[in-house]
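can u do me a favor
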């Protein structure tokens, strides 16, 4: 049993977290990812250990909103993102749209961290399926 959770949203995100949670609940979002550089070794081990587990998806207030089964955890690159990631993020087969969306979301912060986003940037992918919606 893992304590790992997927969190969507943060203070001042302009409603992005709520939109992403809604997409998970509606079955449109079945994957998420982050640059491998965002993870400590311990965090990465937690994500990998979550495979096959049912985990909570929480909002910016740490409130559980739904539960998903982690079906796969793997690495891919930003330049050639895996098709399951692109589809799971809601971009169909359009890898360029996926890259453009994530470039806008990540470039500035990654540049500031001294780890600029490039085609070689390794992404940790989490694919999941909705199990249940948590009633408030």
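np, heres the sequence
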């Amino acid at each position: 049993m893992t304590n790992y959770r997927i969190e969507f949203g943060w203070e001042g995100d302009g409603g992005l977290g709520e939109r992403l949670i809604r997409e998970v609940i509606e079955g449109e979002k079945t994957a998420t990812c982050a640059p491998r550089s965002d993870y400590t070794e311990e965090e990465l081990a937690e994500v990998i250990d979550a495979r096959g587990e049912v985990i909570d998806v929480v909002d910016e207030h740490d409130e559980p909103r739904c539960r998903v089964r982690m079906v796969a955890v793997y690495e891919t690159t930003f330049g050639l993102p895996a098709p399951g990631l692109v589809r799971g993020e809601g971009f169909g087969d359009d890898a360029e749209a996926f890259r453009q969306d994530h470039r806008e979301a990540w470039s500035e912060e990654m540049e500031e961290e001294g780890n600029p986003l490039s085609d070689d940037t390794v992404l940790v992918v989490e694919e999941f399926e909705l199990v249940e919606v948590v009633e408030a």
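The longest helix spans residues 95-112. hope that helps!!
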